[in-house]
Fold this sequence. Notes:
The protein is α/β, with parallel strands linked by helices and 216 residues long. 50% of the residues lie in helices and 12% in strands.
Amino acid sequence: MASKRGKxxxxxxxxRSGKSTQCERLVTxxxxxxxxxxxxxxxxxxxxxxxxxxxxxxxxxxxxxxxxHLLFTANRxxxxxxxxxxxxxxxxxxxxxxxxxxxxxxxxxGVSGLGLDWCRQPEVGLPRPDVCIFLDIAAEEAAKRGGYxxxxxxxxxMQDRVRELFGELREHHDEREDIxxxxxxxxxxxxxxxxxxxxxxxxxxxxxxxxxLRKV
Length: 216
Ligand code: FDM
Ligand code: MG
């Protein structure tokens, strides 16, 4: 059989929605099936830009809102070629947060001129996910899971707005066809099963259509 490209699978959701746990579970599951899988997360705090982002999130430094937005985007661009190469050589890339978070978290600040459309522009041209699995949970439910941490954005009002904006992205923007909503308020195993089903479906679409990796 001709060598197949890898898939680009993204997880999104509020803080404490279970993204990291479910990402790891899917990675493990796919590897057990014999797939080559690379696990990434954004922000990738290990690069120089990622360190600036991390310092901003922890409150150690301040950044102008456009600037931090563009740093988050730049952090994706610095790994865009790597993602493309992995996918091309047959490795599936599973990503914990991507440009959807980039758009909604900045837009949720409510700064004049920084709406979803503006926020999305610098993301245009990045590798486009084959599927974005959105783990849906209300901010109150998420907060019950051990509470939020100390980082910037980990506040109820911000999380509520983020959830609303994820909804807007799903309804009105080009992203909508990529996003699969999974009810993340259930037990870990149930959520995992729903994710695997969504992943298989997206996987089959790519295999059957021979769809190349697209761009945002
Ligand atoms: N975040 C994440 C953004 O504001 N923009 C982005 O582009 C990305 C990828 O950073 F509050 C926010 C979302 C979250 C914070 O993310 C740190 P993790 O997943 O909690 O490390
Ligand atoms: Mg966090």
